[in-house]
């Protein structure tokens, strides 16, 4: 966050003279989104794969000033999308200095701020709040109370001498404190139904009532939420009156193509070693195979976080292998994919009756992904010279203790190897590890096509006739 610019007004009088009239949050987002669309700016940084599906729907909802609920399976980027909404707010907005609710200096709403504004007039001090402070996020949990969301009587303020009927004894909850900002509630169906009722007035009448007080605060908030379809229909639900108050219900989805899946992994994964594009494509296809497999419980979904964790696991396996063999740089090879099924089998839900066969299914789907990637990468390339060389006695050993240079040294000089490397995006003058990764992919594809044999023992794999 940058420092508050010195040129901004510091009193209500200066603010009025500068033309800072109060503007509703829905109008502020509407104006800033329209400006971004007209200028061709990306209003949704970091959001991949939604440009033709989810984002147009969300933009229409925001331009209409609607509250929004995003409905989708786990790991589809719902929370990430909501957090980008803060970028549609003004970078700096004026608030009454010291006010609990961040009220506009020219439009106070609490009794204390109204009194201060009347007493000080144009000398009312003004502070400035950054857009990042105007986005409030709450994970809905069954133990969330009305006091947490709306507010309750503060016994400390009562003990200080105020009467119990004084509106200033109220401790405001999360929603009022987000006045003139965005409130995001994650996993809304997990919120108890009696607590959801407390949001009805906020969303329709745009005010709150606390206990028996006659105090009514005209709040200005944009309420957005996320929900999982399984929770939405079974374990929990959004009560009908609250669901009716959302202006838009938008379905999210997983990446719709391999390129988007790879882009998400590239963006989100913290890779401790180099993982080439072909291996990322393998992982992307692996995750897509999981989402289509009948042995996987598709109601819970296969999160994009699975692909990210898989890429990080492959990178970690490559780094460990490089430490053992002394290779530099550490480059992931297909042999490192073997670490994924065993490590990540707990991140997906299998259908009943598949107990004990989880790793078997994952290995099968991983091999399918490798075969599909190799078919795509090496389409039209004749790999017969490579398989003939191995059949003639040039056995190739790989494993966690075999450096890339040894993989290449086991083969004679073959023109097809340069083609293989080129198809994998590697040039002939690059480190041996990168070239070996491409060659291993070709060897594995030959094995999966039953044109080579493969024997594994004690961490070493040998490709032969």
TrEMBL record:
Gene3D superfamilies: P-loop containing nucleotide triphosphate hydrolases. Residues 171-229 form the Sigma-54 factor interaction domain. GO terms for molecular function: ATP binding; protein kinase activity. GO terms for biological process: regulation of DNA-templated transcription. Pfam families: Sigma54_activat. InterPro entries: P-loop_NTPase, Sigma_54_int. This is Magnesium chelatase subunit I. It comes from Amycolatopsis rubida.
């Amino acid at each position: 966050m940058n420092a508050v610019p010195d040129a901004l007004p510091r009193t209500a009088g200066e603010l009025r003279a500068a033309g800072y009239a109060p503007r509703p949050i829905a109008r502020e987002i509407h104006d800033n989104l329209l400006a971004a669309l007209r200028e061709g700016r990306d209003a949704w940084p970091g959001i991949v794969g939604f440009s033709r599906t989810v984002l147009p729907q969300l933009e229409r909802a925001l331009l209409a000033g609607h509250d929004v609920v995003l409905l989708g399976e786990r790991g589809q980027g719902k929370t990430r999308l909501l957090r980008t909404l803060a970028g549609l707010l003004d970078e700096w907005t004026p608030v009454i200095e010291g006010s609990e609710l961040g009220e506009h200096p020219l439009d106070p709403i609490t009794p204390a701020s109204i009194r201060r504004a009347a007493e000080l007039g144009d000398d009312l001090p003004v502070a400035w709040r950054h857009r990042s402070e105007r986005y409030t996020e709450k994970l809905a949990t069954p133990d969330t109370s009305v006091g947490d969301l709306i507010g309750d009587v503060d016994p400390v303020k009562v003990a200080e001498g105020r009467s119990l009927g004084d509106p200033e004894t109220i401790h405001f909850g999360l929603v009022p404190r987000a006045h003139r900002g965005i409130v995001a509630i994650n996993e809304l169906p997990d919120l108890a139904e009696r607590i959801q009722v407390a949001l009805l007035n906020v969303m329709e009448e745009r005010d709150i009532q606390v206990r028996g007080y006659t105090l009514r605060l005209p709040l200005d908030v944009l309420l957005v939420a996320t929900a999982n379809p399984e929770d939405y229909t079974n374990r929990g639900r959004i009560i009908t009156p609250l669901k009716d108050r959302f202006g838009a219900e938008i379905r999210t989805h997983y990446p719709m193509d391999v390129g988007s899946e790879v882009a998400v992994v590239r963006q989100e994964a913290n890779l401790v070693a180099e993982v080439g594009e072909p291996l990322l494509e393998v992982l992307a296809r692996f995750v897509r195979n999981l989402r289509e497999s009948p042995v996987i419980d598709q109601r819970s979904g296969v999160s994009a976080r699975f692909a990210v964790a898989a890429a990080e696991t492959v990178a970690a396996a490559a780094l460990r292998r490089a430490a053992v063999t002394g290779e530099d740089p550490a480059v992931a090879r297909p042999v490192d994919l073997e670490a994924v099924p065993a490590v990540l089998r707990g991140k997906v839900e299998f259908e009943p009756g598949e107990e004990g066969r989880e790793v078997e299914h994952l290995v099968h789907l991983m091999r399918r992904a490798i075969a599909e990637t190799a078919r795509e990468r090496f389409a039209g390339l004749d790999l017969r010279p490579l398989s003939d060389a191995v059949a003639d006695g040039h056995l190739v050993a790989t494993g966690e203790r075999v450096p890339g240079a040894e993989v290449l040294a086991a083969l004679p000089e073959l023109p097809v190897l340069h083609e293989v490397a080129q198809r994998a995006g590697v040039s002939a003058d690059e480190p041996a590890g990168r070239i070996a990764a491409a060659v291993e992919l070709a060897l594995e594809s030959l094995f999966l096509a039953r044109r080579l044999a493969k024997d594994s023992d004690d961490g070493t794999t040998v490709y032969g006739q």
